[in-house]
Design goal:
The structure is a single chain. With 636 residues, the protein is an alpha+beta fold. The protein is 29% helix and 17% strand. The chain folds into 2 domains: 327 residues, Dipeptide-binding Protein, Domain 1 (Dipeptide-binding Protein, domain 1); 233 residues, Dipeptide-binding Protein, domain 3 (Roll). It is built from 20 helices and 24 strands. The strands form 7 sheets. It has a 6-stranded mixed sheet with strand order 15-21-14-20-16-17. The chain has a 5-stranded mixed sheet with strand order 9-10-11-2-12, with helices on both faces.
């Protein structure tokens, strides 16, 4: 299979200092000193949140980064979302929680049925119904932006035909023609009160999204590139690109353009959620303000379902500030300027100084949080000598002192792992392989059996891409440099920013950025990572194991047709025994190919003011980023 190349920018956080708690209206404990806090918050309404990363788009069908999703999730809503702190259970949001799945004999695959809540409106008063949700799903697919693959795994565009419906594998000429027709339909139909012909088109059974009646919509699997009864459907539609968008706003501001963005919605947001957004300034020092929506529809629904954290109206205005420096963020937390903050990365020195502050709650998070935020490895480009040699790669993975990286560079805030699926995920390392270990004598033996024997490769000096945030990454690169030098492999650590690291994954006219001089490259070896769009093993293998994956293609360049087949067979299967074997096969193939030196899963850490309450912890949350929504939060 050859799905479209997947963007890896989503949910990007590493040893994150974030705000999190354990439940709704939680009385948080903290690991600060016993000294009484004498620095109250400078503001309790609004709550100030520092966020160094900037969301350059607000449109839920375009934005594909942690800060972008954080903003979209406050304003827009979807059919379902994660249930409290769970990342495997889901509650209804725009739909009731009585959604069901069943075998659909018409399609030969599973379908999901959702009953929509009555009385839902957008913040401008426009109504929400099944036709609006149908519009929103197909708009997301037609725009074909970064997060589109999340839907396209299981769903596809429509040609309004029951006899020959479109699928991912339809002829591209037919697809282009159908997309033009669909775009015209989306741009000209009144989805609040459609006519009989439009209703009949949206009720056709042989399409991905099928309106049953104005308050019921059915999602029919099998049309996307997986062509399967996908196990993680609810997780996938919890992502913002499945959220409801106001058709009237879209139609009045540029419409839907296949393959194109909407400039108006990139800068303005009108959703069904608890907040409205204003003063959006996507520059360093800018930010935006989230104001509780005065017309929010969910007050009665929240009272009827007090267990559902997705529904309560917002308590407090939130002022999100795009802080210029990490030093400034730490200062804001210590002085009470910020009630919470989100860092792209923070190391042991930051964690340790914040742990000693009596005004801050500090909590080491369970492994799934670190795994989800970012699991890291050393890539070696298999298309470039000497990394093209199996024995050289074998020597390198045993020349790296993983314990020193974890304990010295990261101060013990991390753990080893075996990829490509991260720890705490379904089917992580199902064959119980031992993580690669530092074995300098074995590394010397192996290099002596390789083309790099007798220092034959010492004259080759490779730039090693290392993230430029934090002394611990610099220290880890130094440890790797020393270990490789001992076996005659010379690397020069070269700092690059997180944004540049994303850029290294890109392909332009068939050329990978990693092979060019951009960002002081080329980089044929360096650090790489992936973060989750949602928690599932295939979200990782489709990116770091599949030959065309965004975290593999331009980095390790690993190509194995069997692994490609197993990756998509596993994504399409729901047979536990079969799945275990697929993931054993994938893990073993990469492990004994020494594709990547699986380096570290940094420990995720949450930090927030002791005066901030109502925080809900979830490993897939984006708001701070582990606090899923702001709506339940308040400050004292």
């Amino acid at each position: 299979m050859d799905p479209k190349w997947r963007n890896v920018i989503a949910i990007v956080v590493v040893v994150v200092i974030v705000v999190a708690g354990v439940g709704i209206y939680l009385n948080q404990t903290h690991s600060s000193s016993s000294t009484t806090c004498s620095t109250p918050l400078k503001s309790t309404n609004p709550i100030t949140v520092d966020q160094p990363e900037i969301p350059y788009h607000l449109d839920p069908d375009t934005t594909f980064s942690t800060p972008g999703w954080a903003a979209a999730q406050q304003v827009y809503q979807g059919l379902v979302n994660y249930n409290g702190s769970s990342y495997t259970n889901f509650s209804g949001v725009l739909a009731y929680s009585n959604f069901t799945s069943f075998y659909n004999p018409a399609t030969g695959y599973t379908s999901w049925l959702f009953h929509l809540r009555p009385g839902v409106t957008f913040s401008n008063g426009d109504p929400y119904n099944a036709y609006v949700q149908w519009f929103s799903f197909y708009r997301s697919l037609l725009m074909n932006q970064g997060p589109q693959f999340i839907l396209e795994q299981n769903f596809y565009s429509t040609n309004f035909s029951n006899s020959t419906p479109l699928t991912y594998y339809s002829n591209i000429t037919y697809v282009d023609a159908a997309n033009t027709t669909l775009a015209n339909f989306l741009n000209t139909t009144n989805f609040f009160n459609p006519g009989p012909t439009a209703i009949a088109d949206m009720e056709l059974p042989m399409q991905s999204f099928q309106v049953i009646n104005p308050s019921t919509i059915q999602l029919n699997l099998g049309y996307g590139y997986l062509a399967s009864n996908y196990t993680y459907v609810l997780a996938s539609i919890s992502a913002p690109n499945s959220y409801a968008v106001d058709p009237a706003i879209v139609q009045a501001n540029g419409g839907v353009v296949p393959g194109g963005q909407n400039d108006y919605l990139n800068l303005n947001a009108v959703g069904t959620g608890q907040y409205t957004i204003s003063h959006y300034s996507p520059i360093a020092g800018g930010g935006y303000i989230l104001t509780p929506s005065p017309s929010y529809w969910g007050v009665a629904a929240a009272k009827a379902e007090p267990w559902n954290n997705n529904l309560p109206p917002a308590n407090t205005t939130v002022d999100v500030v795009f802080s210029a420096t990490q030093t400034g963020v730490i200062s804001d937390l210590k002085t009470g300027v910020a009630a919470s903050a989100s860092f792209a990365y923070s190391g042991p020195s930051d964690i340790n100084q914040l742990k000693g502050n009596p005004c801050l709650a500090v909590q080491l998070m369970p492994p799934v949080y670190g795994a989800t935020s970012g699991s890291w490895w050393v890539f070696m480009n298999q298309n470039v000598f000497p990394f093209s040699n199996l024995t050289v790669r074998d020597a390198i993975v045993h020349a790296i002192n993983y314990s020193a990286i974890i304990n010295s560079a990261f101060g013990g805030y991390g753990s080893s792992w075996v990829g490509p699926v991260p720890p705490d995920y379904p089917y992580y390392n199902p064959g119980n392989l031992t993580p690669y270990s530092y074995n300098p004598s074995l590394a010397q033996q192996l290099i002596a059996q390789s083309p790099c024997a007798n220092n034959a490769c010492a004259g080759l000096n490779f730039k090693y891409a290392v993230q430029d945030t934090g002394i611990d990454w610099a220290n880890s690169a130094s440890i790797i440099q020393s270990g490789l030098k001992a076996i005659g492999i010379t690397i020069t650590p070269t700092p690059i920013s997180l944004a540049q690291l994303y850029g290294e994954q890109l392909v332009s006219n068939g050329v990978c950025t990693t092979t060019t001089t951009l960002n002081n490259g080329p980089f044929y070896i360096g650090q790489e990572f992936y973060t989750s769009d949602y928690i599932s093993p295939d979200d990782w293998t489709q990116n770091d194991a599949y030959s065309g994956g965004s975290a593999n293609l331009c980095m390790s360049g690993y190509t194995n047709s069997n692994v490609d087949n197993w990756t998509y067979a596993a994504a399409a299967s729901n047979n536990p025994a079969q799945l275990k074997q697929y993931y054993i096969n994938i893990t073993n193939a990469m492990y004994y190919n020494y594709t990547d030196a699986w380096m570290i899963v940094p420990t995720a850490v949450s930090v927030y003011s002791i005066y901030l309450h109502g925080i809900i912890q979830n490993p897939m949350a984006s708001a701070e980023p582990f606090a899923y929504f702001f709506n339940t939060q308040w400050a004292s």
